[in-house]
Amino acid sequence: MSLENVTIQFGPFRALTDLSFQIERGEILGVAGPNGAGKSTLMNVCTGGLHASRGRVLFNGKDVTGFKRHSRCGLGIAQTFQIPTLLSSVTVGENLLAGQMFGSEARGSAPDIPIQDILYLTQLEDTLNLPASQADLLTRKRIMLGAALATGPEIIFMDEPLGGLNAEEIVEFLQVIRHVREELGITIVMVEHKTRALAEIADRILIINFGEFVMLDRPEVVLNDDHVVEIYLGKKHDA
Amino acid sequence: MADRSASITSQFTGAGLGRSSLIFWALVGGLALLGGLLGDSYVRHIFILVFIWCIVIASWDLILGYAGIFNYAQLVFFAFGAYGSAMLSIYAGLTPLLAIGAAALVGAGIGVLVAVPSLRLKGEYVALFTFAVHLALPPLIQQGRAIGMGGNTGLLGIPWLNLFGFQVSSIDKLTWYWVSLAFGAVCVYLIYFVILRGRMGLAFIAMRDAETFAQAIGVNEYKYKLLAFVVSAVFTAVAGGIYAHYTSVVTPKVLGTEFFLMAMVMLAIGGMGRFPGAIAGVFTVVIGNELLRSFDDYRLLLLGVAVVVTVIFFPEGVAGAFKPKPPEKAE
Lengths: 239, 331
Ligand SMILES: Nc1ncnc2c1ncn2[C@@H]1O[C@H](COP(=O)(O)OP(=O)(O)OP(=O)(O)O)[C@@H](O)[C@H]1O
Ligand SMILES: [Mg+2]
Fold this sequence. Notes:
The complex is a heterodimer.
Chain A: E1 2-10, E2 13-22, E3 28-32, H1 39-47, E4 54-59, E5 62-63, H2 69-75, E6 77-80, H3 92-107, H4 115-122, H5 137-150, E7 155-159, H6 167-184, E8 187-191, H7 195-201, E9 204-209, E10 212-217, H8 219-223, H9 226-232
Parallel strand pairs in A: 3-8, 3-9, 6-7, 7-8
Antiparallel strand pairs in A: 1-2, 1-4, 4-5, 9-10
Chain B: H1 17-37, H2 41-66, H3 74-91, H4 96-118, H5 123-143, E1 161-163, E2 166-168, H6 173-195, H7 199-209, H8 211-216, H9 221-247, H10 257-270, H11 277-291, H12 299-313, H13 317-321
Antiparallel strand pairs in B: 1-2
Helix pairs in contact in B: 1-6, 2-6, 2-9, 2-11, 3-4, 3-9, 4-9, 6-9, 7-9, 10-11, 10-12
The structure holds adenosine-5'-triphosphate and magnesium ion.
């Protein structure tokens, strides 16, 4: 997927300014930046939750700028959210079923990822009949990811997948994310505040600040960059 | 990695449908027998109303309780069904059964007309808009006198139901009991066991539970919300048609406060979005309302008190009170 000069305007406020970059097939791309930098906004402009005020979003060579969320889902673009949301009045299994059912409907054919693989990756086999409302945080994240995978995506945008997890759970969930890429070959874009975890898993990291592109490079380069360090130490940024 | 492509079993893929259908139809069979045992034609009349209400409330539950759309134009669909079926049989000479079928089509059209503006609005504004439609309809019916809608006095002399050459008069309560039970049972079955336990039902619940998540996993919100309006309107219009041929009179009173309140109370007491809550609400309220008839002036007040009490003590309806408490969440 690639973004070309994407700007998002909320009234007089610009949440993203003239952003251009490309996501490589099969990579894990980390996205970082201070609170309010526009990371969630960026996720949404890629998945169809928001439409670019200016600029274009291309996916597999196709201009998807005007496509809604469900149509982009049909093209193979999935998303998980910063605040874990799921279908709380049905079971865990039915959450996955919904992903499978409506994902197939949106794309017009059955998904290529067998549900068994998804259950194996997310380790949800034993909780299929649990009411989703009773799942703990880590399980909720597994469900959200599982439902997204069930739609049969090529790329997943994950907004702060590690948020709220303790150290042990972070290790566990990072492993799940890694497997998604390795076993299923799905491209992953993940927003994360925890830069150490991000450096560990990501192939490249994109830094944005005040809705503007700062840099995009390998983790060791990005996290040793003076300018990035300055942003993270909270110094006044005047670029 | 496992290579079986097994699928998830769920009520949305038909699991347990046979068993629950059996229970449902056994209960319907029981009610059919009860109709023969009840000697009193007034009691039969009350049950006939219950069966017709069941269709309306199940349809309302579908859109409000399951799809989470704040639609308050339910009785508008009912009124169009009743007037549509009445006028088609009076003026166009359609046999009532056919007129009821045509009323379903009228309902579908009205469903689309109410849906299209509603789909552009957010949450509570849908409630305002649809209720405004409800309020605007009686004056329109007044104006409709010119095209034979009968104005304030309504339409009289709506033809009796004709079942395969057999005229069912309004005083033939036993036949009407069975006819309305059959219609009610089939509609309720289609709504709760076929539609809501299939793809559409899961889409409705998904949009209600988590709108953006639903879109992200491929739910076409516009399509399914439109379907919610149309399906709900079609069934409700059928109920209106049956009502018209049963009472053989339709007046703008079907849009009156008392009807509207009764419908609200049924849903509130029964609990929305959880079968059989709403259906239990219909039986409770219609029968309760009859038992309270001797209190006359205080009846509406008592209904109001009943709502307040349920809303405060059983916020999920009477059905919710029987729901097992979820175990404490593990941290
Ligand atoms: N719908 C909206 N209308 C107006 N302003 C918005 C809207 N959504 C986001 N914003 C603003 O855009 C900016 C970027 O928000 P965004 O949620 O993308 O930040 P973020 O980088 O994800 O932050 P966090 O780390 O806190 O999740 C914020 O200043 C926010 O207040
Ligand atoms: Mg965010």
